[in-house]
Amino acid sequence: VNAHSHAFQRALRGRAESRDPGHPHESFWTWREAMYHLAGRLDPELMWAIARMAYLEMLLSGITTVGEFHYLQHGPGGQPYNNPDEMALQVVRAASDAGLRQVLLRVAYHRAGWQRAAEPVQQRFFDATVDDVVAAAERLRSQGVAVGLAPHSVRAVPGEWLAPLHRQAGAWDVPFHMHLSEQPAEVEACQGEHGVTPVGLLAREGILDERLTAVHAIHLTADDRRRLAEARAGICACPTTERNLGDGILPAQALDGAVFSLGSDSHTQINLLEDARELEYHLRLERLERVVLAERSLASWLWRAATKGGARALGLQAGEIAPGRPADLVAVSLDDPSLVAHDEDELLTNLVFSLERTAIRTVWVGGEVVVAEGRHRAQDGIVADYRTALRKIWP
Amino acid sequence: VNAHSHAFQRALRGRAESRDPGHPHESFWTWREAMYHLAGRLDPELMWAIARMAYLEMLLSGITTVGEFHYLQHGPGGQPYNNPDEMALQVVRAASDAGLRQVLLRVAYHRAGWQRAAEPVQQRFFDATVDDVVAAAERLRSQGVAVGLAPHSVRAVPGEWLAPLHRQAGAWDVPFHMHLSEQPAEVEACQGEHGVTPVGLLAREGILDERLTAVHAIHLTADDRRRLAEARAGICACPTTERNLGDGILPAQALDGAVFSLGSDSHTQINLLEDARELEYHLRLERLERVVLAERSLASWLWRAATKGGARALGLQAGEIAPGRPADLVAVSLDDPSLVAHDEDELLTNLVFSLERTAIRTVWVGGEVVVAEGRHRAQDGIVADYRTALRKIWP
ipTM score of the complex? Predict the structure, then answer.
């Protein structure tokens, strides 16, 4: 269960791993420039083709469910589409076409940041009011879309938006996600605007609870950590993205009580078990220690984050094989050389720490076979359409 | 080109990612215990079966050449086999059977460490004299084995062994490898014994040069870094192992002039492009920056480490497609979802940063097809023999 995805960012893969000599390391320049170019080019058909490609790769990697953190809503210049939910419905269609279970986390995005002018392309992300966000989510719900609410971050929404959105998520009993403390600049700006850290602001607004899934949660004070842990909040780690963006290392060892999930986020790689092992491995590198996050049961701990933890973050009764649960299943080849094991403990450990994609053979979502013998039923067409989309974006 | 392998450690995969509650994080207890158990059990047939399994997985991942850093030489209790090169010849046979090009780095290993008693099982690693090491390598050479010389580390050989071994490698014009500054304890012990860092000791012994490949090179002083860079020494990074063991992060950004290669080392994963990206990514996590190791050409830089850099470390004219070079080739599917790209730059970037094993379709070594349609010609038998070996090791 992949709890955090920006499907359209799949089209950034391979476009931002270099740097113009004039630009300093810390500017994120290449990545931002490529992201804005991409966001500027997207139309509904491109959004669909790219999202379907990301979802294809998720299924091939053994992911059966995604939480899509969706924030690109409007047409060029911020002009709403005739159907104001056009873009959201395209990512819903992409998941349905690919055969992936999805929860659409309808993002609230209002501004570039505190005392910060918007880039023109950001107009495509913006919501004018909390009511607009709630109305959009309500329209999607009325069409049978599984939704959650997701203020983008303390940077992108005013503080006073947080409580009403959280209250609405509670009224509907749906997930409530937000990016939290991903980079030091975000924490500093929050201190400037609100006089507290992002976690401090969430506490002040009364929204630190089990419904919350905080995505990233990297740059935390000791007090932040204690608060998140005591609230038994969800934490969604996205280490393959966090290492790509140079965000830093999530202090998961100091968040006992929080419930962990994983996300492939920017899709520089789509490999949730690589995310699982990195959550542990990055702490080993930082601390020069081994086996940090659990003792005897480390592989189970990480496996749970990749399965039940994600389902919990998305408010689903999924992520485990049990009576009454949906038949979302993945069959792996026990003869795959990355996996071959001697006993059950070793098998689970190899799944988490060593699995290669060649081991993934069959994937069922809701009882339906979507991947067989390592191939998706519509793979060739999805790849061909994606290639066409890339040509339109990067001419 | 995989410049650093301990093939037998493949059988440790999945056996050491937990920890007895009584043991502290920093003890490496589980890993050492499992490693000694394994090393104690190995006989020539098991050595062959495990090495052949590691080499199978290398070929499936697109590796065509391995530098095998071979240090388990003798029978139980240190008793030499009837053929004193028995174990070395088993790993040579494993490579030949699997169809992998190999350079056998004949290790010199003399002691547990400075003022440190040997574990019983370490007797199987020990050489009595420099002359014994050279004689063993000479016997292998006379049978047509491509060899290099490899003092294990400043911990495992006395300082006075270094110069004669290096001189012999020069006389034969073969590679000279050693583990260097992998963990703080190794550096401290060297300071205690020799009054200098490991790099300082190598400098004093006059063996810091282009023939040297220093494996790991993590815990370096500013002076160490300068010396390695100025010598244009080889540096072999093994990040998937280094993150697993909690060794730390190689300061590659401060070693301009050194020539980088990569190794899968302990084989917790065998994925040299994952090693390549981690060399960059771990620095991003440490520095909270992006694109650290090169500017426009980062993917090429890392790709070179995974190919020509490894060939250079092993003294081979391989790692590139050029007239006169061996036909060691890997064909990838451009339609693999992890790889699909819009232009050549993006393709190379996706190879380095995003490739999944499903993309590897055909592998040739010396013009011979060893992997076709993603499967090795002898895969089923190698996996079955490995499974039998595991049952003997972990009953």
Answer: 0.97
